[in-house]
Amino acid sequence: MYDVTIIGSGPGGYVAAIRCAQLGMKTAIIEKYNTLGGTCLNVGCIPSKALLDSSEHYHNAAHKFETHGIKLSNLKVDMPQMIQRKDDVVDQTCKGVEFLMKKNKIDVLHGHGSFVSASRIKITKEDGTASEVDTKKVIIATGSKPIVPPAFAYDKNRVITSTEALNIKKVPKRMIVIGAGVIGLELGSVYARLGTEVEVIEYQDRILPGMDKDCAKELQRSLKKLGVKFHLKHMVTGVKATKTSVTVDFQKRDTEDVIQTKADYCLVAIGRKAYTENLGLENVGITTDDRGRIEVDNHLQTNVPNVFAIGDVIKGAMLAHKAEEEGVFVAEYMSGEKPHIDYNLIPGVVYTWPEVSTVGRTEEQLKELGIEYKVGKFPFKALGRARASMDTEGLVKVLADKETDELLGVHMIGARTADLIMEAVALMEFRASAEDMARICHPHPTYTEAVKEAALAATGDRALHV
Questions:
Q1: CATH number of the domain within which 381 lies
Q2: How many domains does the chain have?
Q3: Among 223, 243, 270, which residue terminates a domain?
Q4: Could you list the active site residues?
Q5: What is the DSSP letter of 195?
Q6: Is the pTM of the predicted complex or chain greater than 0.70?
Q7: H helices within 335-415, ranges in order?
Q8: Which of 9, 130, 276, 412 is least buried, going by the fewest C-beta atoms within 10 A?
């Protein structure tokens, strides 16, 4: 009998398992695949960042090194080696999770987990053999999978998702990306940097829906310079694949004119959905919403009292770090502690180059809420550090309450903003003001000075270097 059994070993699941073990619970984790780490470590966050970094190095070598006084000859992409390095990074990271499971004395059970009852879990292996375990509590952390409508003719060969896009062994000449969200833009930028002609088709009138508009516009400009072509306000009407190519039909919204384009690959990146298939939820009466997500209360508890759910399988942003926070939250709540998560202060990042990062409210959200605010902006091109590194694209935007000066949202695009955003997160956790942010001494020359300058601009047009 286990105190807690976690179904799924992604960032939410394995972190929940570690925290449960730290709190003295006898813990088991069930994983259907041979390696631990879930989507994030195996076919998501980690491998995509490995390829993003590799493609960035190549692009810099091809376009910036000569300006730096570094001359190269016969520069070319070794795609198999690039994929091998990515695989090595994934392997090291997954083995790290295995080590953490052993260190914390967590039993790892391989197979597909499903509910027999609220306290009994069946584990079915690939060969069809099954076993069962008894448990006092259960945490569902089964994550999500890509949404691929049948009309898109997904074949894993020429019509692909992010999973297959991580294993292309030859640089494609052309790639069509359906969806201008985080995943589509990240992977599209990988191949655009390697020389692929990339076309992005997006139904909405902008890229990165839901994120700050100024940052989205800046990123779109940057990607256009890279050669990416955008078709906004367009919808896909048909996808046909052969063994060697794919043809996509699409049209502008509210028109009948069909445009046809052909490419080596079509990457479908229109979002992800909660993965709850064959979990046996019906056996215990766990309820889901109209999008298939497991319904939970403020304690991440389902309608079955001893069963909790975290991460992509419930509502909210599909982010690895959100799942991790929820895993710790549930473990501590089950132990009688009083943990807390402020969902408004979970940062979001787009790992293109320049990077986009955001925390708190956008201007659109503040307007909807009727909150009066003030804005401060500062461009990266005004930073000495950015000029020194040739990373002058980008800006920092600070939104503060018009009356109290409390920080309400911080949005950035530029070099290393994925790391810079944590200054804003930390300050907002303590309900700091724009004045507080502006008064902190920032080292010179650094990218962080853009944060200080944007805060100065928000406190009354006091930016010093524009």
A1: 3.30.390.30
A2: 3
A3: 270
A4: 444
A5: T
A6: yes
A7: 363-369, 384-389
A8: 130
